[in-house]
Write a structure and sequence with these properties.
Layout (H helix, E strand, L loop, with lengths): L8 H17 L5 H8 L5 H13 L3 E2 L8 E2 L1 H11 L7 H10 L6 H16 L2 E5 L8 E9 L3 E8 L3 E8 L6 H14 L5 H14 L6 H13 L10 E4 L13 H13 L1 H10 L6 E4 L11 E10 L2 E11 L4 H19 L1
Antiparallel strand pairs: 1-2, 3-7, 3-10, 4-5, 5-6, 8-9, 9-10
Helix pairs in contact: 1-2, 1-3, 1-4, 2-3, 6-12, 7-9, 8-9
Amino acid sequence: MNNPLLLNDRAAILLKQLVASYIDDGLPVGSKQLAQDAGLDISSATIRNVMCGLEKSGLVIAPHTSAGRIPTELGLRLFVDSLLEVKPIDEKLVSQLQQQLDPDMEMNDLVNHASQMVSEMTQMAGIVSVPKQTHAKLRHIEFLPLPEKRILAIMVTNEKDVQNKVLHLDKEYSADELQHAANFLNQQFIGQDVHQIRESLLQDLDRSRQDVDNVMKTVVEVADKALSDDEIVQPEFIVQGEKNLVRYNDNTDREQLQHLFEIFDRKREMLGLFDRCVHSDGVKIFIGHEAGFEGFGDCSVITAPYSIGENAVGVLGVIGPARMNYDKVIPVVDITAKILGDALK
């Protein structure tokens, strides 16, 4: 195979125009149409010769018996890496994003809203990984009694992240007992890591099990449930706008679309891809099989990490057809990830 990076100017112009036409309508591009669209003063025969060279290099392919050609994954990769001109994002759109991703929103609401917005702006499936609460610091906690030995725990961590959890316990607790337990936790452990609080309480209970008072017994049992990872159920990533992918569908790729929805359901592959992107420097683009998903076919993923301060905590991206408008989608993904990170600070 020839080195695709050694294209001459004429071949580069024709490949760029062919990709642009294919992105526009998804149809094979013939030499006559390419001659008109490219604006080059050359014959159709010359264009056919150039196309033959591009085909030998693995950059274009004739999909059927048609005389027209479409770009391959390698051709799209060369286009994205070397020929793409990314359009600057509209300042009004940036202002709109900053207004709608309000820093006063809770973390999960911000992430969910960011996924929805990037889906709406690109008309593709927006996907955002949810930051893991590995260092949640307690800011405030309250307990409210519920019927049938249940308690509602309201816990504020990391300044503004609020979690409401229904705890199932072995006995009934009065409102006064729960108030004493909450007061103890709020006085003794504010600002500490929630996992360390739980471990500390359990150790104290083991050391002084014989003479521990009723308040401490209540504190330990209730806090053990409230601060347990088993009680915290969070989505690992959020997908919005999957239905947008249906509009690119036709009778030839329904099976591929089904594979894509199965990837969303299985999660493991998607999370593996995001793990590859979270510490990357800026936008990453995966075309077709580069994403590493079986059955991914003619789709692409564009991702960008988002950070809280200096720490990359998640990835925002879109999934759509490989013939997407990369020049418009890339800056939307990039700026949305940056604004999400700023809001989470």
